[in-house]
């Protein structure tokens, strides 16, 4: 999908910073207050890798999906943002809701802008692009959660195998463990 409406394209470009700030604000509001404050204020990428990832990814998603600049970076940016949210304490809908909030951020900014407004068809096209991004985010979230489950399952299997190995060294085969009684003939 391309932004055929020059009015929408120009407005998105002119109000890019404001729309991005509003979108990031909505996204950060989904975190506990203290975490959101930290993500907003700490600019050091080593002290705040999550905040910096959010900043870079939202910028890439906005530019790629809405302004159609460097659209090749969109899948990686979406993955980095969704991967963060997949390991945090979010439900699936909460984890990907930030994508839909892009519509709200853009519409609020456009509503406050003076001058010619984009056509309904252009806004419908924008909605379709955001919806497609949301579907991709949900697919990414599902894949990340499956990977996380696999990692946890393998870790559990290794722990059980280690326990069984340790137990088998302590209790020779055919001998009862200390807490087990010998069977009695009766």
Structural notes for this entry:
This protein is mainly alpha-helical. The protein is 72% helix and 0% strand. It has helices at residues 6-14, 16-28, 33-41, 49-66, 74-86, 92-112, 120-170. Helix 6 (92-112) packs antiparallel against helix 7. The radius of gyration is 25 Å and the shape is elongated. The termini are far apart.
In helices, the fraction of residues equals over 70%
Q: What order do the SSEs take from the amino end to the carboxyl end, as H and E?
A: HHHHHHH
Number of strands: 0
Q: Tell me, rounded to a whole number, the average pLDDT.
A: 87
State the secondary-structure class: mainly alpha
What does the main sheet amount to? Answer: none
Give start-end ranges of low-pLDDT stretches.
none
| N→C terminal distance | 82 Å
In percent terms, what proportion of residues is strand?
Answer: under 5%
Net shape: elongated
The number of helical segments is 7
Radius of gyration: 25 Å
Write the layout of secondary structure elements.
Blueprint lengths: L5 H9 L1 H13 L4 H9 L7 H18 L7 H13 L5 H21 L7 H51 L16
Helix pairs in contact: 2-4, 2-6, 4-5, 5-7, 6-7
Q: Brief description of this entry?
A:
The chain has 186 residues and is mainly α. 72% of the residues lie in helices and 0% in strands. 22% of the residues are buried.
């Amino acid at each position: 999908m391309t932004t055929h409406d020059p009015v929408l394209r120009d407005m998105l470009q002119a109000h890019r910073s404001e729309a991005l700030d509003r979108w990031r604000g909505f996204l950060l509001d989904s975190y506990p207050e203290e975490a959101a404050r930290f993500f907003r204020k700490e600019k050091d990428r080593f002290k705040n890798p999550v905040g910096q990832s959010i900043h870079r990814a939202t910028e890439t998603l906005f530019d790629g999906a809405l302004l159609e600049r460097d659209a090749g970076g969109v899948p990686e940016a979406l993955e980095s943002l969704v991967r963060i949210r997949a390991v945090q304490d979010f439900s699936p809908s909460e984890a990907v809701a930030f994508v839909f909030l892009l519509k709200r951020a853009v519409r609020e900014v456009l509503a406050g802008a003076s001058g010619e407004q984009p056509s309904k068809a252009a806004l419908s096209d924008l909605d379709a692009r955001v919806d497609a991004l949301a579907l991709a985010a949900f697919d990414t979230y599902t894949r990340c959660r499956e990977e996380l489950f696999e990692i946890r399952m393998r870790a559990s299997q290794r722990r059980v195998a280690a326990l069984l190995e340790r137990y088998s060294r302590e209790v020779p085969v055919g001998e009862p463990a200390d807490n087990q009684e010998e069977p009695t003939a009766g």
